[in-house]
Sequence to fold (349 residues):
Amino acid sequence: MLQQSAGNRVPPELFFEAMERRIGQRCSGGFSVFYIRAAGRVVELRFTSKELMAATREQLRWCETEAVKNPDARFFYWNDSVGSYLPESHTGAFCLNMDDRASGAYLRTWPEGRMLAFNPLTRSYYFCEAYKSREEFYRSGHALVLLFSLWAQDRDLILLHGAAVGEAGEGVLICARGGSGKSTLSIACLLAGLDFVSDDYVLVSGSGPLRAFPLYSMICLNPDMYGKLPELRAPVLSVNHARGDRLLLDASGYRFSSGLPIRAVVFPEITEDRAASFQPMAPGRAMVHLIDSTIHQMGENRNTRLVKTIAGRFLNTPVYRMRLGGDPMENACAVGRFIREDLQHVSNQ
Fold:
């Protein structure tokens, strides 16, 4: 629960009422709104800034859908001083939390002035931070990723830091740390005509058959790899100079798969080999990379429930090391052959 002072607690419903009043005051002219469909659910996204709504819309363009009366959830994003939403007894630097298991209410704040919250009574998710320009918003990474991660955990979904591609309706999850060739491999698969779900963040089902669903319609690529994919036709949205001039590209002009069953995890490694190859491997190393990169990217380093959920979800999924060859497009063709032939052979045994 939210601590107001020693021995006193602020009921979640009162906190959310006060926060929504202030949001309404900040947006007296109305919200800028659009809708997306992700993993079969429709989410309404509300912004106090038309500029940042447009930037988010570019990143989620493939999933955009028509308005509905009763969306699964509503996301609110706005810029403000987070301290204005806390009890008067709290001033200066803070890191305040609320995780009410009984009601499902959630609040997390960061010392640098960000706030993430969920009101289960209205199915509303909130993210507030200090003002960002459009370019700063792009450079901060994938739009609203913290909101999507929290929402996914409440909807029997998991938002993973990984890629997903497939062939003939069968898919694989590609996971690795940054710089291991994951994005280049998945984007090459897109260009080679394989089924494509994502190159960086992917939604997967939390129970039942393991399936991957798209969310972001943008792709990320290191500039030295951009020249090795001459057929790539995706407008540059932003260049992140703080991360080695990493490119943020709009891939919404390409065809995305609406969902793929995941049959295996592929763990790519950059090598000096001339041709790609696949070998079965013990799942430990790949799972450590997948879990570590996911919880780090989502800011969930202390979320042991999420760690256990990811580990348990992939407990019986085969894992393969992929030794990458020097030609990205040949690597993509190798992924297609692996899914059609080797993986299909394993499934039939």
Notes: Residues 158-348 form a domain with the Rossmann fold fold (CATH 3.40.50.300). The mean pLDDT is 88. The CA atoms of residues 129 and 227 lie 36 Å apart. The two ends are 51 Å apart (CA to CA).
